[in-house]
Amino acid sequence: MRLDESLVLNNGIKMPVLGLGVYKSGENTKQAVLDALEAGYRHIDVASVYGNENEVGQAIRESGIPREEIFVTTKLWNDDMRAGIQKEAFEKSLERLQMDYVDLYLLHWPVAEHYLPSWHILENLNREGRAKSIGVSNFQMGHLMDLMAHATVVPVVNQIECHPYLSQQPLCSFCRKTGIQVTAWAPLGRAKVFEDAVIKGLAEKYGQTPAQVILRWELQRGIIVIPKSVHRERIIENSKIFDFELVPEDMAVMDGLNKDQRFGPSPDTFDF
After folding, report:
1. In the 3-class helix/strand/coil scheme, how is 111-134 assigned residue by residue?
2. CA 210, 21, 15, 104 torsion: positive or negative?
3. Helix 115-128, helix 86-97: angle, nearest 10
4. In sequence order, which residues have a C-beta less than 8 Å from that of residue 115 and are 6 or more positions away?
5. Is 219 within 8 Å of 240 (Cβ atoms)?
6. Less Cβ around it within 10 Å: N or C end of the chain?
């Protein structure tokens, strides 16, 4: 695998397996995106609620890299679903990004009674070609089954919290069987798993950092990763995961770390 490695989504579009997340990147967003693009990243994950779509768009333009070479994801926020202004919210995202289209547009959370009508609006945006691909984020199996029972377009992606302490194996298996690609947010467990003795031992064994071992484990599971960092050296470090491979026994050891432990909200009980 290479830094520009991609996986083919269920609509035939390629999505890079490594991206930069910009959640809570704040005033450092623009420089972080520039650093990532310089390091070879071609996938940036943002959301309207993060408040930094402007900075992402500025960095992409200033990078000098052709727009079509960069995969950009953004998301429809919960309050915009509840207010029934889904299309207006999408237009504002494009305006802030200063783009004619996004490569992937996601429903950010499965907002009860609103995700189905919102999905139908995303299907229209997809047909118009302004959202090249559409998907969901934080959807559980029940949400996905409900959505697909009423959808004409199957989501290309389900972006979920996923890391060694929350491997999400049943949900990942379900997504795989239904042709939905999993993307992991907080793939490094917000750095709270770095001190795990197993991970530290594997890092020493492979001559890598704990972060690199974790990201490699997720890639070998067929999961796309979008680690967040605003530090240039860590952005580069997170990209150095394509020149080694975990042997099957070590993959199994990593799998065994699961505790079903979330560091973020649960899709079943979130209240925002």
Report:
1. CCCCHHHHHHHHHHHHHHCCECCE
2. positive
3. 50
4. 81, 107, 136, 143, 147
5. no
6. C
Q: Structural domains in the chain?
A: 6-255 (3.20.20.100)
Residue type, 25: S
Which residues make beta-bridge pairs with 160? 184
Active site residue 50: yes
Which residue from 12, 16, 21 is spatially nearest to 2, judged by alpha carbons? 16
* pLDDT per residue as tens digits for the range 38-69: 999 999 999 999 999 999 999 999 999 999 99
**Structure token digits, residue 229:** 């960092």
Q: What is the largest CA-CA distance in the chain?
A: 52
- Locate tokens 């650093």: which residue? 35
In the block, residue with structure tokens 């704990």: 210
Contacts of 252 (CB under 8 A, 6+ apart): none
Band (8; pLDDT cuts 50, 70, 90): very high
DSSP state for residue 186 in the 8-state scheme:
S
Q: Which pair of structure tokens corresponds to residue 185?
A: 């947010």
3-state secondary structure of 14: strand
Got the DSSP string for 118-181? HHHHHHHHHHHTSBSSEEEES--HHHHHHHHHH-SS--SEEEEE-BTTB--HHHHHHHHHTTPE
**pLDDT on residue 242:** 96
* Distance from C-alpha of 29 to C-alpha of 230, rounded to nearest angstrom: 7
Q: What is the pLDDT of residues 241-256, one digit of tens each?
A: 999 999 999 999 999 9
- Structure-block tokens of residue 147: 């959505």
Per the residue annotation, which of 41, 50, 105, 115 is the catalytic one? 50
Mean pLDDT of 127-150: 98
Stated length of the chain: 272
